Amino acid sequence: MTGRARDLLGRLADGELHSGVDLARALGTSRAAVSKIAFGLRERGVPVESLPRRGYRLPGPVELLDRRRLLEAAVAAGRPLPDTVEVLFEVDSTNTYLHDAAAPPVGAPRLVFAEIQHAGRGRRGRTWLAPFGSGLTFSVAWTFEETPPGLSALGLALGVAAAESLTAAGLDSVRLKWPNDVVWNGRKLGGLLLQLRVEAGGAASVVAGLGLNLELPTAVREQLRAAGAVPVTDLAEALGNALPGRNALGAGLASALLAAFDSFGRAGYPAFAARWAAFDALAGRVVRVEQGDAVLEGVAQGTDADGSLRVLIDGCVHRFHSGDVSLRAADP
Asked: Are 65 and 85 in contact (CB under 8 A)?
């Protein structure tokens, strides 16, 4: 996005109506150029409204992600972020962006936030929808000097960190649905996606992405419903007028994930197992486990030491791993 496009978006972010004359003067360009810039933003998914002879506006105010504000919010909370934080306006996927790059050195993680993802990724190849201003999407790249034991449970540990951060932000009753969903009132609020690169007997690099729904447009909810997606919710519904700013929320979540990476590298999943259990959305519930054409039904029994799901089926406890199954709660 060009500098003038960023400047125009910054002036429209208050959700108020701005005349083409005022915008042209502020940007040091012509009204025709403002129209062209606004058109370019719309092509990128930004819903800039053009009102004939009146001006331009967004449907409502949006707190744009800003690197300086993210860093300041983290410092104010006492959990500074590294200087490697990047904020991109648009990207195919923050996870792909970091995974395609060289792994960061040990002790120097990278973080990337994005306003718009064109090809956001969910688990098992699903698409993660994140229209402009409606959510929070970012990824962390981290390198362990040595592959920690139980690395397959890292996603659960990061889920705990995200749930605890959201609780600190005022969200009651947040839960974690194995293996990587953040849920509220039984509906999906967000999700984690991990990509691993492991060297035998050596270092392990991880890219972990978090997508969180903040204020989903009605059209997106209808699109998800029509596609048969799991029921969704957003923080606006859960918190109402107490919705935190995107930069403060992003800083808190990113800091929490970095702390979880560090703790996992030193202590592994045992440092998180009891905390996971406190957020477990499936414990004690009847679940259906799908493996290919086979569908098994049993009672969820929490997680094992390696993060696998334990399910009691016909009197025997079976263990399931993230890549093998999909789950749906079978009881109300």
From this structure: no
The two three-digit tokens of residue 260, written as one number = 């979880």
For 176-232, what is each residue's pLDDT tens digit?
999 999 999 989 999 999 999 887 667 899 999 999 999 988 777 777 777 666 789
For 61-116, the pLDDT digits (tens) are: 999 999 999 999 999 999 999 999 999 988 999 999 999 999 999 999 999 999 98
Is residue 232 helix, strand or coil? strand
- To the nearest 10 degrees (0 to 180), the angle between helices 246-267 and 67-76 is 60
Give residue-wise pLDDT tens across range 125-176. 455 556 788 899 999 999 999 999 899 999 999 999 999 999 999 999 999 9
Complete domains list, the chain, with CATH: 3-57 (1.10.10.10), 67-278 (3.30.930.10), 283-329 (2.30.30.100)
- Side-chain-facing half-sphere of 326: CA atoms under 13 Å: 8
- Out of 57, 69, 188, 246, which one is annotated catalytic? 188
- Report the b/e string of 74-92 with b at 16+ CB within 10 A: beeeebebbeebbbbbebe
Cα-Cα-Cα-Cα torsion 64, 101, 258, 283, nearest 10 degrees, comes to 90
Residues 6+ apart with CB under 8 A from 232: 187, 188, 189, 213, 216, 221, 224
Q: Can you tell me which residue has the tokens 């105010």?
A: 61
The rounded Cα 258 to chain-centroid distance in angstroms is 14
Q: Is 188 a catalytic residue?
A: yes
pTM for the whole structure = 0.90
Within 13 Å, how many C-alpha atoms sit on residue 225's CB side?
Answer: 8
Among residues 123, 221, 275, 310, the one annotated as catalytic is 123
Closest CA to 45 of 251, 197, 220, 188: 220
Q: Is 123 a catalytic residue?
A: yes
